[in-house]
């Protein structure tokens, strides 16, 4: 009897965008919700946009995803808990890492009001950073403001933030 070999592959694809704005919401007399609406309605335009592909799904993130999938418990990466984090470390991404590698220059920012969003096999997280004025060499998605679980990590220079607001958008598609 002949046995058919079958393999199945899943693809974790990540697209990250950083929109760089000269202003912070308070400069324009806006609260965070109004700022987000101005940006979404293209009433405020970024002075620069950086787009990057790929990142690394880390072991802790995969383990939590599997637990959540079977109802095994854990903290979801939802609006109440999710944070995008940035840091200045250029240490290579490794599957066993559980946090950004920056010693001190690292910041996590909460989700924009309507994020994360889920559609057609993709999940998008978005955070606005008015602080985090340093070189952005690494970023990740977390399920807590501190500690918690890191889902993924990417190392690539996005520029040096000196002022204004930078919006980090991370979209993960699983196919």
Describe the structure.
With 175 residues, this protein is mainly beta. 11% of the residues lie in helices and 39% in strands. It has two helices and ten strands. The protein has helices at 32-40, 59-69; strands at residues 12-21, 48-53, 56-57, 83-87, 106-110, 117-119, 122-129, 135-142, 150-160, 165-174. The strands form two sheets. The chain has a five-stranded antiparallel beta sheet, with no helix packed on it. A five-stranded antiparallel beta sheet has the order 3-9-8-4-5.
In short:
With 175 residues, the chain is mostly beta strands. It contains 2 helices and 10 strands; from the N terminus they run βαββαβββββββ. The strands form 2 sheets. A 5-stranded antiparallel beta sheet has the order 2-1-10-7-6, with no helix packed on it. A 5-stranded antiparallel beta sheet has the order 3-9-8-4-5.
What would the keywords be for this entry?
single chain, 175 residues, mainly beta, five-stranded antiparallel sheet, 10 strands, 11% helix
Supply the helix-strand structural class: mainly beta
What is the gyration radius calculated from CA atoms? 17 Å
Shape: globular
Order of helices and strands: EHEEHEEEEEEE
Oligomer: single chain
What's the structural domain tally? 1
Read across the widest sheet, the strand sequence of neighbours is 2-1-10-7-6
Give the biggest sheet: 5 strands, antiparallel
Overall mean pLDDT: 94
Number of helices: 2
Which percent bin holds the helix content? 10-25%
Report the strand count.
10
* Strand proportion: 35-45%
N/C terminus separation: 33 Å
- pLDDT < 50 runs, ≥5 residues: none
């Amino acid at each position: 009897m002949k046995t058919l070999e079958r393999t199945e592959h899943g693809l974790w694809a990540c697209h990250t965008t950083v929109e760089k704005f000269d202003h912070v919401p308070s400069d324009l007399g806006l609260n965070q919700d109004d700022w987000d609406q101005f940006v979404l309605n293209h009433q405020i335009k970024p002075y620069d946009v950086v787009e990057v592909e790929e990142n690394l799904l880390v072991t802790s993130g995969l383990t939590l995803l599997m637990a959540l999938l079977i109802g095994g418990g854990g903290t979801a990466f939802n609006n109440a808990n999710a944070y995008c984090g940035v840091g200045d470390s250029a240490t290579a991404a490794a599957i066993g890492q559980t946090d950004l590698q920056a010693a001190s220059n690292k910041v996590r920012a909460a989700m924009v009001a309507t994020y994360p969003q889920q559609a057609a096999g993709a999940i998008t997280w978005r955070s606005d950073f008015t602080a985090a004025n340093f070189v952005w060499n690494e970023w990740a998605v977390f399920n807590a403001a501190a500690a918690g679980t890191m889902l993924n990590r990417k190392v690539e220079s996005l520029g040096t933030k000196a002022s204004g607001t930078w919006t980090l958008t991370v979209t993960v598609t699983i196919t």
